[in-house]
Design goal:
- There is one protein chain.
- By secondary structure, the protein is α+β, with helices and mostly antiparallel strands.
- The protein is built from 7 helices and 7 strands; from the N terminus they run H-E-E-E-H-E-E-H-H-E-E-H-H-H.
- It has a 7-stranded mixed beta sheet, sandwiched between helices.
- A hairpin with a 6-residue loop joins strand 1 and strand 2.
- The chain is globular and about 55 Å long.
Length: about 270
């Protein structure tokens, strides 16, 4: 499998995982930067992530223009992805979703911060972008280049930005990493909301704890890849998973158990 085909394959897996883990539903999307041309990125056509196949993947310029003319309808909010890729050369993959557990933190002054070890990947600071600050009354959708660029400006060097009354955008160094971040962001939000309801002071992760956690989870570390394989298998696409070192498909068949003769002592 070529490098590009492998990337498209992984983008399909990312869509299926996010759908199966309830990060996205009929809406929401994930993109990846072109490995050979950083001025372009891949994103599916306008379709629910659960149904995405390799044939549904489209290529775009950073201003959201499809490279191939006359193709299927793209996502309206592709400008989220283009804006972040343009502003952040270090970013390889982007997710936009509307996970309900994250929404309250875009509506109040209580900040979203990591409180559980798996939430360390969201980073110490999670800014909130309010589209009304610059664009007034809108339908809250990121519908053009200027709005995408403004969201990217709020995201800055951070991993996650909440979008007031809308959802969130995540940016990471790989598809595996951005999926992991997007899965654990709502879980961290639930833990933080629950702690707030109990009352008393909340103990957030320190910067040192965040750094210590993140050191062990590079984009293609064994630990990170293990989660990717697990989630893909749960989503029914475990047969599509390839190891980053060999790009060989991973078998879904469980290992055979050793048999012992009846009555024979071990």
């Amino acid at each position: 499998m070529s490098k590009l085909k492998t990337l498209i394959n992984d983008l399909v897996i990312a869509n299926r995982i996010l759908a199966n883990e309830d990060v996205v539903d009929a809406y929401g999307h994930v993109s990846v930067r072109h490995p050979d041309d950083p001025s372009r990125f891949f994103l599916a056509r306008s379709l629910a992530p659960e149904f995405i196949t390799p044939a549904d993947i489209m290529e775009f310029t950073l201003d959201g223009v499809p490279v191939k003319k006359g193709g299927p309808s793209p996502y309206l909010e592709r400008f989220i992805h283009g804006g972040i890729f343009e502003a952040r050369p270090d970013v390889v993959a982007v997710v936009h979703a509307h996970a309900e557990d994250t929404l309250p933190f875009g509506l109040v002054e209580t900040p979203m911060r990591p409180v559980i070890h798996s939430g360390s990947f969201i980073g110490a600071k999670v800014p909130v972008w309010d589209i009304a600050d610059k664009f007034g009354d809108t339908n809250l959708l990121v519908a053009n280049v200027e709005q995408g660029q403004d969201l990217a400006k709020t995201l800055g060097p951070n991993n996650v930005a909440l979008m007031r009354g809308h959802g969130f955008a995540c940016a990471a160094r790989s598809l595996i990493e951005v999926v992991r971040m997007s899965v654990y962001l709502p879980r961290n939000a639930r833990a933080l909301s629950g702690a707030k309801q109990l009352g008393g002071a909340v103990k957030y992760l320190s910067q040192g704890e965040i750094d210590a956690r993140n050191r062990g989870y590079s984009p293609y570390s064994v630990e990170t890849w293990r989660a990717w394989h697990y989630w893909a298998t749960k989503a029914g696409v475990g047969n599509m998973v390839t190891r980053p070192d060999t790009k060989v498909a991973v078998s879904k068949k469980p290992a055979k158990k050793s048999k012992t003769a009846k009555g024979k002592k071990k």
